[in-house]
């Protein structure tokens, strides 16, 4: 909050002796302004202190109560979320050895540590299954490598749901749990019989 300096002088009344009381009630405008900072403070109040300085002994003892000033902040808290960054906006792994990675961070500083549990099925492997963010590292990307488990099931391509479960005492982040879809490419070929069944060919033609 900024305040312009103001000063009263008596030169207007130096030559006047019989002046009426209402003429002494002179007013001066004071401009108040809020400092545009990056702090997220919401609507809040501050007290404007007023101090009197004068060579007039009568005014030296003048006490003026502080004036409450309401300030409307223009900075807002972003939603409490887990921010996920994928490679080329998708997550794709294959049983042939193609891996991928995702990075996690929080959208804003938490009031309490935030633990994220990464849960999925056995089709994929993760380099980390737990990520912990606090007031110091909340905006530092946490890297998680993703790979596919090579099994014997021929399912061509499948989609795996990776759940991110949040555990925290921060009430805003308690609802931040989310999920991510990961595409898994298979390296197992369907059997000839299986191919013929999918193509509606009779098994008698199988050789």
Shape: rod-shaped
Which residues form runs of ≥5 with pLDDT under 50?
A: 1-20, 190-207
Strand order across the biggest sheet? Answer: 6-13-12-8-10
Measured distance between first and last alpha carbons: 87 Å
Q: What fraction strand?
A: 25-35%
What's the layout of helices and strands?
Layout: E1 2-3, H1 21-24, E2 32-33, E3 44-48, H2 57-60, E4 67-71, E5 82-86, E6 92-94, E7 100-106, E8 114-119, E9 124-126, E10 130-133, E11 142-148, E12 157-168, E13 178-185, H3 192-198
Describe this structure in words.
The protein has about 210 residues and is mainly beta. The chain contains three helices and 13 strands. The protein has helices spanning about 20-25, 55-60, 190-200; strands at about 1-5, 30-35, 45-50, 65-70, 80-85, 90-95, 100-105, 115-120, 125, 130-135, 140-150, 155-170, 180-185. The strands form four sheets. Strands 6-13-12-8-10 form a five-stranded mixed β-sheet, with no helix packed on it. A four-stranded antiparallel β-sheet has the order 5-7-11-9, with no helix packed on it. It is rod-shaped, with a radius of gyration of 35 Å. The N and C termini lie far apart (about 85 Å).
